[in-house]
C-alpha cells in the first residue's frame, strides 16, 4: 500500500509540476532553467551548469540561496563596485530547435535594486562566426515591484519577452549583466529562465490527418477532455488517458498517458480515417509526431493500424519507447518534445487507418507519455529536375536502408574502406534516406558509385546535361567530391568532372541532424563515343581528407534552353537574365538567383528578390533600402573565356524602375584581368533623389524603363563583374528593381546615313577587334543581289564610318554591314 501511494505521488508530480516552481514555458529548450545543476551551488561563488562568469570583475557573478522561485538556487549579479561590472553568460545552439523567422518566447522571474544606471538580461543571436546579429536588451533600474529592502524579504516579478530569430543565427546567448555603465551598482536576481519557440503546428506537407494538434474537442482544458476523432480505453478504474495543458508543441493541448497502475493500461485510439484519395495499397506514408515520456517497467507505444473495407485489422506497425525522452527534465512542465519521423507502408486491401497511443507493452508499465502534432501524408516527391532520367534519385529504393550499411538500388561501395560509404536517416530532403560519406580516417577513402547505360531514352553524345542535388558537408584536410564520368564501349574514361567541396556548407550546424542542405546545380557535356555515365561520391581528393558529405535528390536531365522573352538581347550570353532560375525565389530575403549572384553590402536584408513587379514573369532583382546607416549590394562574376576577346565590344541591356532619396543607386560593370585587377569600370547611376519615368507611386503600379549601353573589352580581360548597389553612400534609401539583364557580343548597327556632295557617309556601331564589309543592293525583291563596296575595313570603338563614292543606278538602294 505504501508503494502504491508513492507511485501515485510521482504521477501527480509528472502531470502538475512542482507547485513551488514558477511557470515553465511549454517546449522549453533552455537547459538547467532553475539553476539547480552545477558545482558549489550553496556558495556565492558556485557555478550553475552551462554558465560562465565574465565581465571586468567576475566575482560580481554569484549564486544565491537567500531567495528563489524553484528551490533552492537563483543566479544574480551583485555589484557594489562602481568601477567594474559582472556578466553571467550561457550559450545554446539553435540547431534543430529554431530557424530564422521563428518567434522565441522568453520567460524568467527577477527581482532587482539598481542604482546609478541599468542592469539587464540580454538575449543575443550569434552567427556561425560568433558575431552578434541582433539582441534583446531587457533593462531594469530602480527597485522591482516586489522589492522590500533585501533579497530574503522581496518577491520575484515574472517577465515575458518575445524575439524573432534573425537570418544567419545559429546560437543564442543569454547574458545577465550588472552594467549599462560600469558605474552602476546594486543587484539583479534571476530564476526559472525559459526559452521556447512560439508554439505553432508543425505538420507534414500534405497532411490529411484530422485534428492533428488536438485543439478540437470537448472539455479539453480538463484532464478528462476528449479531442474530436479520438476515443479512450482504460482497462481498470484508473484514468490513464488524459488531455494535458501543462506542455504541448502547438498551443494549447496534447494527448497524454498518465499510468500509475502496474496492473492495468490505457489506450487512446482514433476513429478510422479513410485512405481514399490519399493512399492506396503499396503506397508509403510519412508519419510524424512529437513526443515526450518518462517510462519504467517495459514500454509505451504509438501504433498505426490498417483496416480493410469490412472493418478487420489487416496490419499493425508499432513504435515503442521506454526510459526518458531526450528532452525530459523531471516533469512535464519544462520538458522538451522530440520529433519523430517514420514511414509506414499501406498493406494489401487496406482502406482505413487508425492510430493508437498505448501505455502498455505489459500491464506493469508505469510512467507518462505525451503526443502532439500528429500528421500523416504521402511522402514528398524528390525535388528533381524536370525530365530527370537518373534512377532512384531520393535513395528510397534499396536494401536495409534504415541501417548505415544499407545499399540503395543501383549503387555500390568502393574505395580503400567501404564502411565510409553509408546511408543516413539523420537528415534528408525527401523522406527518409540520404547518401553519406562519413570519413574519420586520414589514410583511407570511401567511394559510392552508380552507373547508367546511355541511349536515346536518356542522353546521347553532344547533349548538355543539367545536374542537380542537395548537399551538406563539413570537410577538412582536402576536398570531397561528387564526380561525373563518361566511358566508351571499352570502359575507357572519356571525361571526368569533379564538383569538389571543402570546409563547411552554408547550412552546417555542427552535425548531420539539424543542418540544412544546399541545392547545387551543375552542367556537364556528354563527350563523343560515350555509352555509359557514372556518378561517384568520393571522400578523398587526398586520402587525408576527413569529415562528412551527404547528398540527396540527385537528378540529371538533358538541358532544355527555354525560350527567352523579346526583352532579352538576341545572342545573350549572360546567365539567368530573367532571374527565373535559382533557390527559394519566392522568399525575398533568402532566395538566391542562379548564375553566381551573391549578397553583399553592410546589410544583406536590403538585397531582395521580388514578385511585386517584373519585365518577364515572375521575378526581379530588388534593392529595398529603408536604412540610412547601411547599404545593400548584389554582385556576381562572369567568366568571359571563350565568349569575348580583347578589343571586342559588348551590348548590355536591362530594365529598371526606382524611387530613390539621399543620392543614387546604381548598376555597375567592371572588366577584370586574371589577377582580379580592374581594367575598366563604370557606374550607371539612377537620377539622384528621383524616380524613373514610369514610377507611379509604388513598385506594383510602376513601369520599367529600358537601358542600353555598349562597352569595349580591354586587353587582358578574363571576367566581367556586375554590382547592383543601393548606395554611393549608406544614407541612400528607397527601392530599385532590375530585370532582363542581358549581354551579347556587339552587333553592327547602322546608326547614321548622311549625304554629302553626292556621296553617302555610313556610320555603324563597331568594335576595334573586328573588320567590316560594306555591301549595297538596289532592290530587296524578289531576292537581293549584294555587291561588296569595301572589305576588311578596320573597326574602331564605338563606331566606324565609310564614305560611299560609287555611282548607283536607280532611285533607291540598300546598305548592309557584315562583321568579319
> Whole-number average pLDDT?
90
Computed Rg: 34 Å
Shape: globular
- The beta-strand count equals 52
Structural class: mainly beta
CATH homologous superfamily assignment of the largest domain: Galactose-binding domain-like
Distance, first to last CA: 104 Å
Number of domains: 5
How does this model look, in words?
The chain folds into five domains: 38-197, Jelly Rolls, CATH 2.60.120.260; 217-377, Galactose-binding domain-like (Jelly Rolls), CATH 2.60.120.260; 405-558, Galactose-binding domain-like (Jelly Rolls, Sandwich); 582-745, Galactose-binding domain-like (Jelly Rolls); 750-819, Immunoglobulin-like (Sandwich), CATH 2.60.40. It is 2% helix and 48% strand. The chain is built from one helix and 52 strands. The strands form eleven sheets. Strands 14, 15, 16, 17, 18, 19, 20, 21, 22 and 23 form a ten-stranded antiparallel sheet that branches. A hairpin with a 7-residue loop joins β24 and β25. Residues 1-21 have low confidence and may be disordered.
Describe this structure in a few short sentences.
The chain is mainly β. It is built from one helix and 52 strands. The termini are far apart.
What brief labels describe this structure?
48% strand, 52 strands, 9-stranded antiparallel sheet, Jelly Rolls, 820 residues, 5 domains, mainly beta
Topology:
Layout: H1 2-16, E1 38-39, E2 47-48, E3 51-55, E4 61-64, E5 74-79, E6 86-93, E7 103-126, E8 132-143, E9 157-164, E10 171-177, E11 185-197, E12 217-218, E13 226-227, E14 230-234, E15 241-244, E16 254-259, E17 266-270, E18 273-274, E19 284-307, E20 313-324, E21 338-345, E22 352-358, E23 366-377, E24 398-399, E25 407-408, E26 412-415, E27 421-424, E28 434-439, E29 446-453, E30 464-487, E31 493-504, E32 518-525, E33 532-538, E34 546-558, E35 582-583, E36 592-593, E37 598-601, E38 607-610, E39 620-625, E40 632-639, E41 649-661, E42 666-672, E43 678-685, E44 705-712, E45 719-725, E46 733-745, E47 750-756, E48 759-765, E49 771-777, E50 787-794, E51 799-804, E52 814-819
Antiparallel strand pairs: 1-2, 3-6, 4-5, 5-11, 6-10, 7-8, 7-9, 7-10, 7-11, 12-13, 14-17, 15-16, 16-23, 17-22, 18-22, 19-20, 19-21, 19-22, 19-23, 24-25, 26-29, 27-28, 28-34, 29-33, 30-31, 30-32, 30-33, 30-34, 35-36, 37-40, 38-39, 39-46, 40-45, 41-44, 41-46, 42-43, 42-45, 47-48, 48-51, 49-50, ...
